[in-house]
Amino acid sequence: MTVRPSATATDGSAGRPNVRIGVVTFPGSLDDRDTQRAIRLAGAEPVPLWHKDRSLGQVDAVVLPGGFSYGDYLRAGSISRFSPVMGTVVERAREGMPVLGICNGFQVLTEAHLLPGAMLGNEHLHFICRDQKLRVENAGTAWTTDYEAGQEIHIPLKNMDGRYVADERTLDMLEAEGRVVFRYAGDDDSTGYPPTEQASPNGSLRRIAGICNAEGNVVGLMPHPEHATDPLVGTGRTDGLPFFTSILRTFVEGAAA
Amino acid sequence: MSRTPSGAGSPGAAPSKLDTVEHAAATPDIEQPWAELGLKKDEYERVREVLGRRPTGAELAMYSVMWSEHCSYKSSKKHLRQFGEKAPHSDALLVGIGENAGVVDIGQGYAVTFKVESHNHPSYVEPYQGAATGVGGIVRDIIAMGARPVAVVDPLRFGAADHPDTKRVLPGVVAGIGGYGNCLGLPNIGGETVFDACYQGNPLVNAGAIGVMRHDDIHLAKASGAGNKVILYGARTGGDGIGGASILASETFDDAKPSKRPAVQVGDPFQEKLLIECTLEAFAEKLVVGMQDLGAAGLSCATSELASNGSGGMRVTLDDVPLRDSTLSPEEILMSESQERMCAVVEPEKVARFLEICDKWDVIATVIGEVTDGDRLEIYWHGEKIVDVDARTVAHEGPVYDRPYRRPQWQDALQADDANALPRAADSAELRAQVLKLVASPNQASKAWITSQYDHFVQGNTVLAQPEDSGMLRVDEETGLGIALATDGNGRYTKLDPYTGAQLALAEAYRNVATTGARPLAVSDCLNFGSPEDPAVMWQFTEAIRGLADACQVLGTPVTGGNVSLYNQTGEAAIHPTPVIAVLGVIDDVARRTPSAFAEEGHQLYLLGETAEEFGGSAWSQVVHDHLGGLPPKVDLERERLLADVLIAASRDGMIAAAHDLSDGGLIQAVTESCLRGGRGARLVVPAGLSASTFLFSESAGRAVVAVPRSEEARFTGMCGARGLPAARIGVVDGDAVEVQGEFSLPLSELRDAYEATIPGLLA
């Protein structure tokens, strides 16, 4: 895929493009500041975006962060999808702007029909928080080029409604088109929950943890890469940092080309 | 339902007539339902004396909730004074007892506020909402101080693990704490889960929260400056949580109205998340003169406390309070404990900006009154005055009791039933079986099933979380400055000896903070006891407070605030006296933290402190012999200080790779946990002079086990020797089993199965 940097002002000192990544704050967003930190750690510039604003400013990409937007009392993500900012996000995403939805952001992306399928409550009906092993299935999206296909990584998972479902045809299509980006791999965390039918931590069909759209610019996943970017906090791993360096590389190389 | 004829039993007169101040003065002889509202005869008389007339229905409602045990601390106040009187000098204390929460200086311009509160009774009635609103309440205390909440902890006590009701209460409580805290975006970094039959029917759901702010941002709950506006913001006021007021509701209104409203409030964490953000934004723009959250006693408490802490005068128009239910009476509005509400005092010229911020966050905000000259709190309804009181008499001059207390007669027999006389394992096979039984027992087993329902990662600053000895957070990303918090309490020890038991709880929390490398700074407490009307319970209470205050003096850690929960009993049977102690510590650089996992082969294991034969109240005596008797372990506070100093120095200078405190379950429990966490085994040697049982199971205080890299061994033992701290080499990190030489070997896989299967087996 090709992604054109839209607003690549050059950073004078290094001579490389200053990549600006927007992070939307909905009422009830929780991991917005953490996502901004991860973007900073990767070397890009985080730009806070407010749900009531239609404008995305001069950003090159957008992350929809985790949390419980609008309390998620109705259905996770179902109200946020109608917020002013999402109108623009959907428009720009269809034009090719990279968009990453993490957890609640993934739920918003499915509600906004940028990604197929839907999220139900975890099969065991509990909130689950743990360090989760994933297998990278597609290292070709805007957000995963710094991984290798088949690579196993650990990314914290924390959600109530993380059970990915879609009809068989959609699932087959996702598989056939290589649009399953991450799969839950193994159950090496001892939380005491009974293993679910599909050996995924929440009952997701075909152990799907993350998917992308046909063009590969929109990616959604349930685990939280922003919480695996600093060895000092969280699980102490940095397996999530490549998400943010990938998007940076997409633009840096795009600008160089 | 049938209704009593008008007049008798209603707070005012006939329901159609509003009970105004004027009306109350004119009708001194009307019967009022003071007893139904929980006031004693003499307390009601005192209200009449204070006012010089009978109270109006609304005033009666306010006095009854504000003079309740929960709000007025009338049984405990006399004893709690010791925390102030015996407080050690500390430069760290910026705001002391009496505010919503104490504030501690942690350096670099940062201040931390922390507090633990009980939500025991509601959580038994309705576990999910009871626990959820417990979290909500403590978090509002933190934001009222001007701090950003950064973490929560949850010390919990339930009935027997295998009791059917525990399966009702525990999953609901855990889901409620998770449901609320996760939705607020607060990492849960610590807490405890303890099972004991004494908590059957009286689970203890204590919720703690920590907030961080800059020194300049500390805000106190007071209303001053005549003309300043009183703004109520957050959720609308509904009929939920009108505790003692159900009687008002049932006797004041028509048959058509629902008469009984749930006494347990319903939480809306999304609304609270918005409250956090808009409150902090208003603070950041310096728009706030005073701030108070609405918790117990709702508007009665917020208005009277804000006024009483300020210059005293306030006028409120109750008609302006946004309602969920338009049929609420003024008494109900005053007593409602609807959640997610705050009250701010704002200068007139800043009101517009304050309301704008609330609007940005879609939070309803309404000016309901203003600060006035003088000392009267006046409340109006439909243009008529229904409350006219001196705010101090409501908020701060309630009754104070000096309740009788007496050491119970059974105490001697309990202490004489010496646990040290219990039979030990006869051979190695039995010893091995006892270890497995211990680590698989509900109190010692892994609590991952519970803690995995809590978000530990959100906010991105969690350095350590349960099951580590203390939770640790990074406060400053540039300098690495951090804080640690541990909560501990042992009802079994405290039952055997309340004075010592309270000190042991403090010592353990203090030790847990130091074990992770942080320096203990300050204390908060949540004191859970039975009925103060029972002299035996009152004795336990006074002894525990005395023990705690004395110990804080020696350890140099002041009590910054706390909470008292009394009447935790069913019939005659009180719970074990259970003071839960929270200790806050500071660490200069979180990169220096000490984890509990034994992660590398070859590290030398040292046992710090001295081990005596001390089985009273121990996990071993409970699990193996179902016994509670004798004396709890001895307390040596100077030793605790020394141990803490060594652990902190070792962390700072990189001498140790891991450390774990020794408490319930003794050495073998600590070693098992550290081995399983790191995925490494350990070979242990029983030191000369100790029996294997004492070595493995004794619960002597003032001890920790540390893993020392060989390269640091000489330096570390040299430091212990120079400082006079006993340090015995007891083994090495090695292999994939926990082996006690000459006794037994337990493969990690077998230990892990025992340790991890119990709780899911009982609850999943």
Description of the molecule:
The complex is a heterodimer of chains A (about 260) and B (about 775). Chain A has one domain (about 20-255): Class I glutamine amidotransferase (GATase) domain (Rossmann fold). In chain A, about 20% of the residues lie in helices and about 20% in strands. Chain A has helices at about 30-40, 85-95, 105-110, 170-175, 240-255; strands at about 20-25, 45-50, 60-65, 100, 120, 130-135, 150-160, 165, 180-185, 210, 220. Chain A has a nine-stranded mixed β-sheet with strand order 2-1-3-4-11-10-9-6-7, with helices on both faces. In chain A, strand 10 and strand 11 (about 220) form a beta hairpin. With about 775 residues, chain B is of the alpha+beta class. Chain B folds into three domains: about 75-215 and about 455-595, 60s Ribosomal Protein L30, Chain: A, CATH 3.30.1330.10; about 220-395, Phosphoribosyl-aminoimidazole Synthetase, Chain A, domain 2; about 440-445 and about 595-764, PurM-like C-terminal domain (Phosphoribosyl-aminoimidazole Synthetase, Chain A, domain 2). Chain B is built from 26 helices and 28 strands. Chain B has a seven-stranded mixed β-sheet. In chain B, a hairpin with a 6-residue loop joins strand 14 (about 460-465) and strand 15. In chain B, helix 7 (about 125-145) packs parallel to helix 10 (about 270-285). Mean pLDDT of chain B is about 90; it is low at about 1-15 and about 245-260. The chains are: A alpha/beta (about 260), B alpha+beta (about 775).
